[in-house]
Amino acid sequence: MKILVAGKGGTGKTTIASTLAILLSKSGYKVLVLDTDSVPNTAVSLGIDVEEASKIVPLTMNDKLIQERTGAKPGEGWGVFFTLNPKVDDLIDKYGIRISEKLGLVVVGSIDASKQGCLCPAIALARHFLRHVLTSRDEIIIVDSEAGAEVFGRGLAEKFDMMLCITEPTVKSIGIALKLVKMAEELLVKQNVIVVNKVKDMKRAIKLCKEIIGDRVSYHLIRYDENIEELDYRGRGLNELPPNTPMLLDVKKLVEEFIPWIEVK
Ligand SMILES: Nc1ncnc2c1ncn2[C@@H]1O[C@H](COP(=O)(O)OP(=O)(O)O)[C@@H](O)[C@H]1O
Ligand SMILES: [Mg+2]
Predict the structure, then answer these.
(1) How many CB atoms within 10 Å of residue 155?
(2) Structure pTM?
């Protein structure tokens, strides 16, 4: 199962990707999370100490690695010639962070060319690594991304079994989610679910979803959860969420409804 967690910034991608990863790994599944945000913060949400997390260098920022694998030289404007199919099959072992027995994380860094400037070799390496992970690993893969499937483009987007497009319960935010889903469908992402997060008024949010999503796209609602705010405030991971907190229950329901062959405990 390869899951892309996408959507506009601040909607809750990292929160939901991390909660899902913790839940599935605690249920006995091997899970690998890839953080492809240009401001990576999944590590903290997964429970790594803030100080420790700040020391992690994303693959796309690791100049030595990029030079070693692609042949591009950082000091020379990265040059024009670099290897398009660098060796990547050892990167999980070398740069992966073990969160728990069943849960691993690789901080990849942004693969969005518009955000990375012209560091083409870095993006080439990251994309090649993603392709490797999406096609040859047997863990559940969860990608916490900074945008929609369009950043992954053809050749990569269709490797995902599912895109969870995170949105807030507003007309504007859901409108953006619908556009992202349309792009994902064009890129052949197999299943798309709009996840309406931070819901405070369930009745009103359901009405809104019925009106603007209707039955065009599947959707799922996740309640606003004060415990998340509290953990965030203290810089703590979501592994410390109490067992029956709304977020956990609602993410569980999401799995039960849309990935029924995965058994969550
Ligand atoms: N269900 C929720 N209830 C309460 N706060 C939430 C919820 N989901 C996310 N948040 C908060 O919203 C903010 C943005 O979430 P985050 O996961 O970092 O978004 P993104 O990764 O999309 O930028 C964080 O402060 C997070 O704690
Ligand atoms: Mg994030």
Answers:
(1) 10
(2) 0.96
